What does this fold into?
Amino acid sequence: MTTSSAPGKVYLFGEHAVVYGEPAVPCAIERRARVTVDRRDDDLLRVHADDLSLDGFTVEYSGASEGTPDVAVSESLIDAAMGYVDAAVEQARAAVAERRDDGPDPETIGFDITIESEIPLGAGLGSSAAVTVAGIDAATRELGVELSPEEVADRAFRAEYDVQDGEASRADTFCSAMGGAVWVEGDECRTIETPDLPIVVGFDGGAGDTGALVAGVRQLREEYGFAADTVEAIGDIVREGEQALQSGDVAELGRLMNFNHGLLEALGVSSRSLDRMVWAARDAGAEGAKLTGAGGGGCVVALDETDETGTALRFTPGCEEAFRAELDRDGVRAEPATDGGQSEGDA
Ligand code: MEV
It folds into this structure.
């Protein structure tokens, strides 16, 4: 039995624009997905997830990946989560097959997989990337192969790319595998030095449909030159943002985040609850605030040294939870085995 974990993330800058080759800076936070993989004697894949939750948002199901789980949230979210698990296992098997000429064909090896996550599904905090990254790491190590974090990131990107029909950048998966703040621009991915940041997250309890939101931006960009210019302007903000990050200028980072949110709003990926939380944070004195991830619902990220933003968010209609998030400098990592594995009766 092997367990790995990987962090979720917030986007300081650049979501959506990164899909078109502009840079983005996501930043890992100390909310993790843990995936435990236990090799089976047959070729079946069984997945068990007790808790893909923040408080107030809990998915409970137990079932074979090909079966219909007993769910407490939208089935499309569960289908999406299962798609990432299947794709992660496929990538892990391929990575092992590349390194082995003998032994059983990895395609014929089945697994019991248990997912425990502190990251809400589809809410802009990189739940799918964290599960995919931790899943690939755990499954390969369970078969005796250790991949570098860079290779885990690359394989996780390929898994996301397949599940999201080609509408995925390397940003979420690279950030989750490497930890810290990262720069992603097309295929160029690198970690960047960053001071600790006073990150506050507000969560509206909802989720956006990443595929539909990315498709909406693509359509706007094709239809209007000014929408394409807006995407490029987000790239300019990210370039400024990297300098502010390196000099630790939190006030400038906040201003740029506000600007970035305005442009995402113009591209149609914000929502009333996200805008309300963004304004609550700004009114409470945050240096800046923006939606994070695909948008449509889910989370906002704000910068505030004080507790004012967190308090204001907790009193904002539509905000289900607000929490301070520490930057997580660790990416994917092996975890000590727990009894979190699935028992025979679960499946
Ligand atoms: C989703 O977390 C971020 C998007 O930019 C899509 C992607 O980069 O794959 C909207």
Remarks:
- Residues 53-73, 341-347 have pLDDT under 50 and may be disordered.
- The first strand starts at residue 2 and ends at 13.
- Residues 75-99 form the longest helix (25 residues).
